[in-house]
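Box 3.1. Reading complex inputs
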Amino acid sequence: MPNALELTGIRKTFDGFAALTDAHFSARWGEVHALLGENGAGKSSLMNIAAGLYAPEAGQLLVDDNPVRFAGPRDAAKHRIGMVHQHFKLVRPFTVAQNILLTAPPPAEFQSHGERLREISRDIRNKAAELGFDIDPSKRVDALSVAEQQRVEILKVLLAGARILILDEPTAVLTDQEAARLLQTVQGLARKGAAVVLVTHKMADVKTYAGRVTVMRGGRTVATLNPQEASVAELVKLTVGESIAAQGFQPSAAPRGPVRLSVRGLRTPASPEGRRVLDGVDLDLHAGEIYGLAGVGGNGQGELAGAIMGLQGEPTEGEIRLEGHGDLKTMAASVRRGIGIAAIPADRYGLALAGGLSVAENYAIGRVHTGRYGPVWRLRRGRIQSDTQEAVRAFDVQGVRSVAQKAALLSGGNAQKLVLAREFGKSPTLVLAHSPSRGLDVRASAEVHARLRAARDSGAAVLLISEDLDEVLQLADRVGVMTRGRIAGEFAQPADRQAIGQAMVDHG
Amino acid sequence: MAEASLSADMAPSHKTRAAQQPQPLAGRRYALEIRQHMAWHWQALILATALLAGFAISAAILIGAGVPADELANEFVMQTFFDGQNFRAVLFQAAPMILVGLAGCVAFRARFWNLGLEGQMIWGAIGATAISMWQIGPENLRLPLMFIAAIGCGLLWVLGPAWLKLKLGVNEIISTLMLNYMAANFLLHLVYGSWKDPKDNFPYSPQFRVFERLPELGAGIGSSILLAGLVALLAWWLASVSRMGLYLRFVDANPRVAHASGVPVRRTIYGAVLLSGAMAGLAGFAVAAGQEGRLTQAFYQGYGFSGILIAFLARNNPLAATVVALLVAALFVTGRSLQVFYQVPFSMVQLIQAVIVVCVASSDFFIRHRLRRVGGEAVQ
């Protein structure tokens, strides 16, 4: 089959850092081609070049074997290349149809805006039906779940005419079932002749769905091969450069303690359609255990996490009782931190770190309320600096040349380690971890998991909310499934994966 | 076919086309990229260059307007800073400028766009004047009472917009701006009405008594500049030394992260905004009790804009704002003498201000981006 897209000898540096040194990649028409690599291997950078977002400093880009150069995503779209980014590029207060209208090709003849919108809405419904899902074009994007938003992204590039489809970590935020559905859909697109590039670091997806796989490491292309002819161990070895033993579930060494957190009848107000985001959550979390909350994204996990962390969200009824402290709902976020609640939110730069501020400031903000860094009228910068340096060392946060550098300069894994360093710095009694290894590579995920286990073993109650079932099964002592705003089932470990998967979709 | 993305291709296009080789030839292509970080001394250098460019353009405009080129340096530098009387005039002018500039810095640091500096200033002056009008308190306490009244009134005038924003999400740009008109019209109501000076029936309040005016420190320098300096130190301490400074940086950088990390976001914003109002109120006090010696009908005009401009040029840094305010005051003083000696309209001063602001604002581009030669050794 002929090459649809080819990149050769690509080089790209950011602020002196070489993201790509010598990258090669080619995808054929009619195939699903996986691009595999750890975080920071350069997968996303390379695909951003293919999508016209970055200009390469050296190297060549070919579409249908013709050299091309893109001045922007619009040019790439003209060559029928469309990319679905890991962080969705949707205008949140706009409706689905409005978002898609932004990138849709202009109409052939004059149309009023209303007509155009109706036409687009019709196209959206048809395309969605063709792909096997259902979407309401008049719904606002911020009212959609993550999985639904991703579908909008895919529809957007397809309706803009893309035949070369690049998906950047599409399954990172999806459950097993959602991911399988999505990957089957893109497989179908490839069968109809499209070229699909699947950027991922999930070996299982590569093995099951990709026709070929290109492995990248440290900004270079390491190999291109047929995944059927390579074992997972070989693929892992190619991506990380050394073998990391797959880790199974490790039960807690000590028996679990008394109930530390008890959530009773937590409810958010009903929408006009009568739906509640949280609809009576009942949950008991013991000291010294990891409770894994699995479930399809958008079933209230974010709201539950927000309610425990004390974010300004919708007011809730019911109670969240922490042993020895009463109902949390009346406490400000700063008070909650003071009594030992550690939070690792899913949205790293949206809720955990201020990217524009320094590493030291981001570290200090977690403990400044305790007075450790001086009284209200004076900040003890020296102590902040030495504490941060110590924490950076202890938690192996790499890429910190100086604690005065901006937190935004850290890679995903190191940013997460900084969050952990801050949250675990003062031996928490309750840990809330929401998708803590989202977007992290194998090594960084393993370190995050080790920290969560260590917190459990030192007696903390850990609530792990994750849409990645593998993660839940690896870590959790007990597994709960959240659907439609309540806990639909609880499973003791070792849990039956099929049964959990069933519980996730039964009500969802 | 697209030529290049985000980069200027300086190679003759027929060459690249003919060879169908997108690789650039050595040193012929430049790429613009986002810079994550820049050392502070480079930032300072870029800022200085931008200021110089602004001055050069301003000088060209002034020369075009008929000021002799050889007199410019003399007028601007020598006459303004090295002539004792003019320097005193600069300090005299600078005190309220510094105060409104600081008021801008403090509010903007909390992401509260306080465009109501003039209104708060008016109320500060009204509060101080009320103490004088109604002769509240003994003579030796009169000035401190006026000081407190100015702070209180400025603060109360911004409390409404702050509450509306934090409670109901009302846009503070609109609410503070509109409240300026209410304050200005209430001021007119007072000076044309019950507070009109009975001596000459002009629309201003009766003159303050000696003990109601900010005293001179000697050598013709008023104590209002000392007051402004102290407030600048207070603002610097708040922003750079205290815990609230850290809170403010988080509120500014990302309010959601701030909230989730346990920063008392509301209290921080309230604190900063009320302080901003208080500082603007003090600016009104500095004009009424330090310059005019009474409440006049248009004393506030231009200060709102200047305050925003000073805060912007100083990047919300209180100490930098003090320096910038001094420069703006110098520009005012020089502008007045240019008006007298060369018949240059006073609006030229505003033009120069605008030119400098545009230059400094553009310099941001060079701090955030870098132009880098690419493709030097690109042949593979």
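In summary: Chain A touches chain B through 58 residues (CB under 8 Å).
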